Amino acid sequence: MNNTYLAIDFGGGSGRVIAGQITGGQLHLDEIYRFSNRQIKMGNHIYWDFLSLFEEMKNGIRLAVQKGYHVTSIGIDTWGVDFGLLDRAGNLLGNPRCYRDPYTEGAPEEVFKTLSPSEHYRESGIQVMPINSLFQLYAMKKECPDLLECADKLLFTPDLFSYFLTGTANNEYCIASTSELILAKERSWNWELIKRMGFPSHLFGEIVMPGTSRGNILPSIAAETGLPADTQVIAVGSHDTASAVFAVPFPEGKASRCAFLSSGTWSLLGVELDEPILSEEARQAGFTNEGCTGGKIKFLQNITGLWILQRLMQQWKEAGADTSYGPLLQQASESQISGMIDVDNPVFTNPADMEKAIAEYCLSHHQEVPVTKGDYVMCVLKSLAARYKKGIEQLNSLLPEPIQQLHIIGGGCQNQLLNRLTEEALGIPVIAGPVEATAIGNILMQAQACGAIKNKNEVHIS
Ligand code: LFR
Hints:
By secondary structure, the chain is α/β, with parallel strands linked by helices. It folds into two domains: 3-241 and 438-458, 2-Layer Sandwich (Nucleotidyltransferase, domain 5); 248-433, Nucleotidyltransferase, domain 5. It is built from 17 helices and 20 strands. The chain has helices at 50-66, 107-111, 117-124, 133-143, 145-150, 157-166, 173-177, 191-196, 219-225, 240-246, 280-284, 307-318, 325-334, 354-364, 373-398, 416-426, 437-449, and strands at residues 4-10, 14-23, 26-36, 39-42, 45-48, 71-77, 83-86, 153-156, 171-172, 182-183, 188-189, 207-208, 212-216, 232-235, 258-263, 266-273, 288-291, 297-304, 405-409, 430-432. It has a six-stranded mixed sheet, with helices on both faces. Helix 15 (373-398) crosses helix 16. It is globular, with a radius of gyration of 22 Å. The relative contact order is 0.13. The mean pLDDT is 96. Bound molecules: beta-L-fructofuranose. Beta-L-fructofuranose binds next to helix 10 and strand 16.
């Protein structure tokens, strides 16, 4: 089975190895392996288990080889902002921290004591979130300056996996943009800010664009996995959202009038643009300008997405209730609940009891309090749809032309009730799919880089 592209997609809860092939203009996907990803709390910190993730990735690759796939290339995408540090000999310094580590609490407030938020936004175009690498590095420098002093290179999570596969250490543009340390217009490191923060400048390496080869796999990886020695690792849109947006079937020439909603734990709502929007209005409305494939910009809002529903379901499951999606959504569609919540309110970030957090919010905001499970689900879905409406209105006020249609991609687009509520709230057509947008975008970029396709639009995705 020739010309296979392997997408390795790491999410906050699981990682996957997916094989992709393009035959007769049609893309075929095969999910080879899925493994869990956990956040590990140790001492006062929360880490990713990088070593086990690396091992699981190799297990998945090995299974693909055993299944008979002849792998041409590999592309890796992950969540944003997190990174690992290498020492001068190329060894990993400690386990990479997880962005939910509380060490960045209060860091933005401290940094913005001496930095103007508006000026900073005009340069970086990134929505300030404590989880961003800028604040992680600030907190790390404060807590253990020695670590930064002895580090030679900073590699974002997909860069780090690629490094241990190839020995090439560089920083892919899309993932680097989530650091808040990139100049949005120039697509290069913000050296002035890096210096001002006191971060060693040698940590930040060459920025490579999606589609760049990171070289062949190391002989030791070929021996361990059975991969051909000339298997390349391609830098794809290595921020998962960038790969997902690459898979959106925007009608040709109309991308700026079509919004996307990458729907999963987070809801990422925005448009793909050629250049960033760095105005004060964009900053105030909470928009971020992250890097996209082709050096483009994804101008979007990070909205608390299906996280609230995922937590509710987990809680009900732990209490022994039946949490099959179908019946729950059926009950929700029959609910007449009028109560709504502000999904982005910090009370929903990580409450011990999500049901209680929703009930308390409704009570204190004079909203009808949900009673049944169906009411709770409907309350969350209606609130998400209302939040998307607000986001589209804010986009319309910043763009030259109003949004004409919304593409919902990712796992969340399977929620037909939410799609319907969103369409009703927005009053524009909603197009659902692809579900596997991230893996598809990852594979299409590899196929393009390897010269198998000229343009992603040639490929039919069923
Ligand atoms: C989605 C995502 C978002 C980012 C969040 C944390 O998986 O990549 O784009 O804001 O994870 O990094």
